[in-house]
Amino acid sequence: MQRVLVVSFVLALSGWAHAQPQSFFLRHNDTPIAVPGGASSYILDAAIPTAEVPVAEERVVTASASQSFPTFTSPAFDADVTLLPIASVRLNLSANQKMRECADLGVTLSRVDGSGGLAEIGSGTRAGATLEQGSAGGTVGFASSRLEFPVGDPSILAGQGIAITPTVTNACSLSRRVFFAYDALAAAARVRFQCCFTVAAKCAQAKIKAAAKMASCLLALESRAASSGTVVDPRGAQKCLDRLVKFFGNVDAKKKCVTLGDAPAIAAKVDALVADLTGQLNPLAPPSRSKCQARKIGAASREAVCLLLLGGKAAARGEYLDPDPVNAQKCRNVLATMFGKLESKGTCVTSGDADTIEAQVDAFAGDVTSELACPCP
Predict the structure, then answer these.
(1) Reported pTM
(2) In whole angstroms, what is the distance from residue 79 CA to residue 74 CA?
(3) Distance in angstroms (rounded) separating the CA atoms of residues 181 and 26
(4) What band does 9 get if pLDDT is binned at 50, 70 and 90?
(5) What is the Cα–Cα distance from 131 to 144, expressed in whole angstroms?
(6) What is the CATH topology of the domain spanning 9-194?
(7) How far is 193 from 182, CA to CA, in rounded Å?
(8) pLDDT by residue (tens digit) across 276-289?
(9) Contact between 315 and 369 (Cβ < 8 Å)
(10) Backbone angles phi, psi at 213, to 5 degrees
């Protein structure tokens, strides 16, 4: 099958200066494409595969032996690039008979010089993997395996490229036919460069979500207090804090997180936001009884949670960027729209403060996310 690849590899790298991870997919084209030192049908390409039926490579692997699948090579970079420090490779594998905890997987990442020479800059292994029984030549029944490893020398010069070579070792007692499926939407084998290991990135996302829950919890108490003209019961506020401290303690105990022991620091950031917002939105002493101010506090809470969840999604991908501008603006629009509607009724204690509150919430969400997410170069 002829597949026309969109070789956007070089163009996609322009965002890396902003610590943006980039995925490159293992692709196949019947007509070889130019790569450093020659041409190849096995390509690393930035375009996401869209085919319904994957390509499948087959290798007969005898007991105690290893076999390599094709080496997938990128087109040459047109400018010097520094890769992010962690490579995450996803492979879609199966076998003619199930390999129960007896498949040892490997992948090698190489720099490709202008003449096509390969120099290893990282490798990952996974011992004792299970490969499911595939069918239809390995295009059905495969399962994904992820291998992650540090990139030893992340500098790629103009005119050079990178290459990925998957391998499998048969630790079973009998020979197996092993299939590697790729180049389809449902079999998107890829290499991704990111700022930290995925397990640490997922932990960062969980902590950011916990911070969002504490902020939502405290601001809900403040909103109810503003509505009734009372003060917040400190026991309720303590429960909000206790939940965050307990959660952080549980995940820190696994020692998989980017950061450890940061519950007090994050709780202090949440407390500071809540104090700032309520000081501006419910400024009277004793507290005013104002449903308008209560709803303003609720709108600020929704924006804070919305932005933190966006930051958590970014953190889970092993990155930290400013939130996606389109979705972040949707978060802000909720606050601006609500403030405008409330103030139009003329019953608010404060007015014209949407921009100020929005800026404070934005700064808070960025601060918490950058504190907890993977540090990027």
Answers:
(1) 0.80
(2) 14
(3) 10
(4) very low
(5) 9
(6) Jelly Rolls (2.60.120)
(7) 19
(8) 999 999 887 677 78
(9) yes
(10) -65, -40
